[in-house]
Inverse folding.
């Protein structure tokens, strides 16, 4: 297995799928700043939308090699991997609510994309592959903290698609010795995240008024600031360890949605009135009630640990959303 170091990133060609998304755009930014040669795989549209990569400054954008295609198309994926040293596969349909409405679309997209990445990486003998999973595959915690041996209990079609994708990835490691690692982030939040997620939803509503509409507020999550999550991905990509492993990235602290509302209210100096919106509830048996990560494996293998506590992360996220409130207002009907 090939051993990369942080200094070696300056000489490495990296491909990032899902680079136009929330975590992907931050990962792209960090890898460019670290000196990597970055190619991004974006879904083709007639106007070649680059989504959240548009938030990067022009100097960084000028260093990106843009590749437009479809992750469900094998030839498109294989062509994008030409002369690549490290693959970060983040591309997926990620909406849990969407997966309840269109489970087939989510399952086919996510599993086919991962299979194409794996098959093409095997064909081209890519030295390092990072596959992105999700803490949703665990379902409600059967014990805490959740380590990588925790039973998998997908409670949504989205989670099931990721269980399937992870299983296919591990099969390629066992069958073909493909040099891959599966990174399993818990609930990442931070600047650029859309109103699809609960923290931007809370912040956006409170910046506008004192009353907010939410679904269940008693559920607990392990929220990890995006810069910490990205550092975990970077460390995984340059490590010679962790092959064939599933590795959690989480803050090792869990907090209820209600507590998040309280902290955001304190930061904004607002008294908050929470209104329950039943339309925001997941189907009864699909609600994940409690997630709390064990990140011991990431610490032992990669030397990774989060630097931001929840208040620090929320303060930075609030600043970003306040400075971009017009963009969030355009989606106000979602919140």
């Amino acid at each position: 297995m090939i051993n990369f170091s942080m200094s070696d990133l300056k000489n490495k060609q990296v491909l990032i799928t899902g680079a136009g998304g929330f975590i992907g755009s931050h990962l792209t930014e960090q890898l460019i700043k670290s000196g990597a040669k970055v190619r991004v795989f974006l879904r083709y549209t007639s106007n070649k939308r680059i989504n959240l990569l548009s938030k990067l400054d022009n100097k960084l954008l000028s260093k990106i090699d843009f590749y437009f295609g479809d992750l469900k198309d094998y030839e498109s994926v294989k062509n994008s991997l030409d002369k690549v040293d490290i693959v970060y596969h983040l591309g997926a349909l990620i909406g849990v609510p969407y997966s309840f409405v269109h489970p087939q679309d989510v399952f086919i997209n996510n599993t086919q994309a991962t299979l194409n990445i794996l098959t093409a990486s095997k064909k081209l003998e890519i030295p390092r592959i990072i596959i992105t999973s999700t803490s949703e595959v665990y379902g409600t915690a059967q014990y805490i903290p959740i380590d990588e041996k925790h039973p998998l209990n997908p409670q949504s079609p989205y989670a099931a698609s990721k269980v399937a994708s992870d299983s296919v990835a591990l099969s390629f490691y066992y069958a073909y010795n493909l040099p891959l690692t599966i990174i399993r982030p818990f609930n990442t939040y931070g600047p650029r995240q859309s109103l699809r997620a609960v923290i931007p939803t809370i912040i956006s509503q409170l910046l506008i008024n004192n009353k907010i509409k939410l679904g269940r507020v008693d559920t607990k999550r392990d929220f990890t600031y995006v810069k910490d999550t990205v550092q975990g991905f970077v460390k995984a990509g340059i490590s010679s360890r962790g092959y064939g492993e599933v590795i959690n990235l989480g803050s090792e602290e869990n907090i209820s949605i209600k507590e998040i509302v309280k902290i955001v209210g304190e930061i904004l100096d607002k008294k908050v009135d929470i209104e329950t919106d039943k339309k925001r509830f997941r189907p009864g048996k699909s609600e994940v009630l409690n997630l709390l990560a064990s990140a011991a494996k990431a610490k032992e293998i990669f030397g990774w640990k989060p630097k931001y506590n929840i208040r620090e992360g929320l303060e930075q996220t609030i600043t970003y959303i306040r400075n971009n409130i017009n963009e969030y207002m355009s989606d106000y009907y979602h919140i």
Q: What stands out?
A: The longest helix spans residues 103-124. Residues 6-193+224-252+292-307 form a domain with the Rossmann fold fold (CATH 3.40.50.720). The mean pLDDT is 93. The CA atoms of residues 211 and 273 lie 5 Å apart.
